[in-house]
Amino acid sequence: MEIRLFSAMDYLDKFVDASSQLVNAYPVAASLILGLGVIGIARFCYRTLSVFLQIFVLPGHSLKRYGAKKGAWALVTGASDGIGKEFAFQLAKAGFNVFLVARNKETLDAAAAEIASKYSVSTKTASIDFAKADDAAYESLSSNFQSLNVGVLVNNVGKSHAMPAYLTDTPKDEIADIVSINVNATLKVTYSVLPGMIQRRRGLILNIGSFAGSVPSPMLATYSGTKAFLSTFSSALGEEVAQHGITVEHVNTYFVVSKLSKIRKASLMIPHPAPYVRSVLAKIGLPCGAAYSRRPNTSTPYWSHAILDYAMTAIDIPTFFISYTHGLHKSIRRRALKKMERESKAQ
Ligand SMILES: NC(=O)c1ccc[n+]([C@@H]2O[C@H](COP(=O)([O-])OP(=O)(O)OC[C@H]3O[C@@H](n4cnc5c(N)ncnc54)[C@H](OP(=O)(O)O)[C@@H]3O)[C@@H](O)[C@H]2O)c1
């Protein structure tokens, strides 16, 4: 042990000697390298500190700015379950009337009744299947909220693949449904709600995205592409409407316990919808983990998701993340197929 310590000290001495010889020989170059190193370290420390302050200390915009407790409505798509249902409850608690949208009228009405019994706000529901909706269905949906003062829109509805698969093995209707739900519904509902927000010079639009949008995800290529759309769309629209006092935020989400994720147990990295949505609503306007990701109008607010996003931005080796995700999805598909085989044998 002592011998090792001595030899490590020896190497250190040699390194210091060689460094001082270099500094003496090339003082300008050495100072430049040292200066750049110090700037790099200071920049990293500043960024890390600012990200941690945003995640753990700084408050986001107050929801009052968007009409909480002033009679404004919050419109939430995919509001009968999972993250969307939690948005409906927490926005009602914050003082918004809530308009819940999904396919199943019964579950929507049950959620609306529970909200109305818990909080003194008004509720409305509308049933629509975004996978099949035509122009008439969208017109009928928007006729429900044209006269309402919508302060918050949560474009939450989303669909992923039944299991990871290469594009050519993915059913055509699954691809079409994912695009219709994740892209068209967001565009069309936003298109209906935005003119009223512009007129009132007030509004918050939350587009619920996924890490699959920031890390291209092989074997979930369609879902991944639709979620990447949300990021670029939010950056562009956010700049368009900032002049009207409207905030657009793409909410970057890692896993959350829900039917869509097929995860039932919460963990450090996988919260239940309640703490997840609390973090989103507490950090409006703060990019948190997405602060240095070159994705304006994106926020990664949940603390463990935020640290992961920031670490991935700092490491910055996209090809590594893509190939890791590919391997992961190959193994998920293998296990899903085995499970299906077992189940079909058991029948
Ligand atoms: N959970 C995660 O780990 C995770 C991770 C990243 C991103 N996200 C995103 O978070 C959002 C919410 O996901 P979630 O996990 O909360 O999903 P979820 O629990 O499966 O809930 C989906 C909601 O959307 C509604 N819905 C589904 N298909 C619909 C359709 N065709 N037309 C209208 N409504 C429909 C469902 O109600 P009906 O069945 O009654 O229609 C339900 O209210 C999605 O955009 C998802 O991509 C989730």
From TrEMBL:
It is an enzyme of class 1 (oxidoreductase). The chain crosses the membrane at residues 25-46. CDD domains: 17beta-HSD1_like_SDR_c. The keyword Ribosomal protein does not apply. GO terms for biological process: fatty acid elongation. It is found in: Endoplasmic reticulum membrane. Pathway: Lipid metabolism; fatty acid biosynthesis. The active site is at 223 (proton acceptor). The keyword Signal does not apply. Keywords: Endoplasmic reticulum, Fatty acid biosynthesis, Fatty acid metabolism, Lipid biosynthesis, Lipid metabolism, Membrane, NADP, Oxidoreductase, Transmembrane, Transmembrane helix. One of its GO terms (cellular component) is endoplasmic reticulum membrane. Its EC number is 1.1.1.330. Substrate binds at residue 210. It comes from the Eukaryota. It catalyses: a very-long-chain (3R)-3-hydroxyacyl-CoA + NADP(+) = a very-long-chain 3-oxoacyl-CoA + NADPH + H(+). It is a single-pass membrane protein. One of its GO terms (molecular function) is ketoreductase activity. Component of the microsomal membrane bound fatty acid elongation system, which produces the 26-carbon very long-chain fatty acids (VLCFA) from palmitate. Catalyzes the reduction of the 3-ketoacyl-CoA intermediate that is formed in each cycle of fatty acid elongation. VLCFAs serve as precursors for ceramide and sphingolipids. Belongs to the short-chain dehydrogenases/reductases (SDR) family. This is Very-long-chain 3-oxoacyl-CoA reductase. It comes from Collybiopsis confluens.
